[in-house]
Design a protein that fits this description.
The protein has 351 residues and is α+β, with helices and mostly antiparallel strands. The chain is built from 7 helices and 21 strands. It has a 5-stranded antiparallel β-sheet with strand order 14-15-16-17-21, with no helix packed on it. Strands 1-20-19-18 form a 4-stranded antiparallel β-sheet, with no helix packed on it. Strands 2-3-4-5 form a 4-stranded antiparallel β-sheet, with no helix packed on it.
Length: 351
């Protein structure tokens, strides 16, 4: 039982890393899964797919062959291997040894330990502007944030968890709820409902806010839904792969009312206020303001804001992962830091 449990734990963790594009960590987890269950052909097959993404074609071919040795009738592995060998006919498919990520981290930690200590001391000793507030949260991989009355809701794509906080001085945690087979990339709310978008299943989910039970499931219009917002009359969603923003009617099919093209490469946050549409971009660590022209059915970029505590000017490297607002403040989440940041609008620098 422990063998299957450990295999599944590392296997599904590897698939999550793969879907997120973190290929090195995905291979590490597949290797751990194979230590418990080397006889599972599908694990070798999935590991081969990751190696192909990493352009380690020799490693990929090896894993496909192992999968076929275990199951000679594995059609997907047979076709993938044939395609790989055909596409690399003139190349030497050498097996490349990967240097484990954890070993790299340990070596770098040892080499740069004094530097890390110095910057840690500097970080905590530096004068932090009183107008920026930092809130610690239990979510290490927050992927969305929404404010609803006296509540703040945060979702975590990695742990498949939704957190409900009081909108108080410390964002006190009220409860956390584990989701089943949903990896939320964004979250939105109104008085009675929560909305989640999931890039893994390419779906938008509607939840009863009190019970947190799914009350609706809808196919996302794009290949990678990455942010969502409830403006009352409409539901809005963004897709970071298609670079689109969609306005949905709140009918039984979430019918698309309007579609706009975006110029942001990695949209992770969305907020709509009147005719103003705010977009948070993870790659640039900036927030962009667009103006909606409903008659012309188009949006145009008005402003680009540098965010204090984010980007190249920040003391600590942070990557925006979610966006929400009040009348006076911008609220942002950051991947891997376990913090929420409250930043006054007056501190934003327009480019």
């Amino acid at each position: 039982m422990d063998k299957i449990k450990n295999t599944n734990r590392h296997y599904y963790l590897a698939k999550a890393y793969f879907a997120a594009g973190i290929f090195g960590r995905a291979i590490d987890e597949f290797d751990k899964a194979l230590k418990f269950s080397p006889e599972f052909a599908n694990i070798h097959y999935d590991a081969a797919r990751v190696y192909e993404k990493m352009e380690l074609f020799g490693n990929a071919a090896k894993e496909y062959k192992i999968a076929l040795d275990i199951n000679p009738h594995y059609t997907d592995a047979k076709e993938s291997l044939a395609k790989l060998l055909s596409g690399n006919r003139d190349k030497k498919l050498k097996i490349k040894k990967r240097f484990p990520v954890k070993k790299i981290i340990k070596i770098l930690s040892a080499v740069f330990s004094l530097i890390i200590i110095f910057f840690t001391i500097y970080y905590f000793a530096r004068p932090v502007p009183q107008s920026i507030a930092y809130f610690s949260i239990p979510s290490l991989h927050p992927s969305g944030i929404t404010i609803s009355g006296d509540e703040i809701w945060i979702c975590d794509w990695f742990s498949s968890t939704v957190y409900k906080h009081k909108f108080d001085a410390v964002l006190s945690l009220i409860k956390s709820t584990k989701l089943s087979d949903i990896h939320p990339a964004g979250i939105a709310s109104n008085k009675k409902e929560l909305w989640l978008c999931d890039a893994f299943s390419k779906k938008i989910f509607q939840f009863d806010k009190n019970t947190l039970k799914v009350s609706g499931s809808f196919q996302s219009p794009g290949a990678n839904p990455s942010a969502i917002f409830d403006s009352g009359k409409f539901l809005w969603s963004c897709d970071s792969q298609d670079d689109k923003i969609y306005r949905h009617k709140k009918d039984k099919n979430l019918t698309i009312d309007l579609t706009f093209s975006l110029s942001n490469p990695n949209t992770v946050g969305l907020f709509v206020k009147g005719k103003n549409i705010f977009i948070a971009d993870a790659d640039t660590s900036r927030v962009y303001r667009y103006l909606l022209d409903e008659k012309a059915k188009k949006i145009s970029r008005l402003s680009e804001y540098e965010i204090p505590a984010f980007g190249t000017s920040a003391t600590t490297a942070r990557k925006i992962s979610g966006l929400s607002m009040t009348n006076d403040y911008l609220f942002l989440t950051s991947e891997g830091t376990g913090e929420v940041y409250r930043i006054p609008f007056k501190m934003l620098k327009s480019k």
